[in-house]
Amino acid sequence: MRAGAERNGHDSTRPLDADDSLGELFERLTSDLRAFASTQVELAKVELKEEAVHAGVAAGFLGAASLAALLAVALLSAAAAWGLAVVMPAGFAFLIVATVWSVAAVVFASIGRKRLREVRPVPPETKRSLKEDIEWARQLKS
Fold first, then answer.
1. Running DSSP on this structure, what letter comes out for residue 72?
2. Residue 98 phi, psi (nearest 5)
3. Are 81 and 128 in contact (CB under 8 A)?
4. pTM for this prediction
């Protein structure tokens, strides 16, 4: 028996569909490749959409940090500083209030940055699938 001639009860030297012409086989191959590419694109779209949601949440926290810092500094700082100015010099009172709001802005910004770092720019399933496809193509080539 020839090496590799029969594997799992199938003669590997004979085509699966012996009656199909070369044109029909290429047509089937083209159709299969088109379907494969469409599947890969859909997978990438789904994964990118999920990551976009995570990025949107992170951007929302950064926006909230900016808005909170602006409003807090503008409104509460003036009121608190005037209140403290009753018991200490006005300059020190305004400095203390500005420091407190600066710390709050840093906390909000760090939360937003942390959430933004959790966003994965490369979809992991698509990346894994493409690596498998490349390996499969290499095996076919050899």
1. I
2. -65, -35
3. no
4. 0.39
**What's the Rg (C-alpha) of the chain?**
32
3-state SS track over 87-127: CCCHHHHHHHHHHHHHHHHHHHHHHHHHHHHCCCCCCHHHH
Sequence letter at residue 128: R
CB proximity list for 131: less than 8 A, separation 6 or greater: none
What are the residue boundaries of the structural domains of the chain, listed by start?
19-141
Residue-wise pLDDT for 87-140, tens only, equals: 999 999 989 988 988 898 899 999 999 998 888 777 778 788 888 888 877 777
CA distance 142 to 133: 14
**Is residue 62 within 8 Å of 109, Cβ to Cβ?**
yes
Q: Which residues pair with 6 in a beta bridge?
A: 11
Greatest Cα pair distance in the chain = 104
What are 77-91's pLDDT values in tens digits?
888 889 999 999 999
The answer to whether 119 touches 51, Cβ cutoff 8 Å, is: yes
Tokens of 30: 């083209």
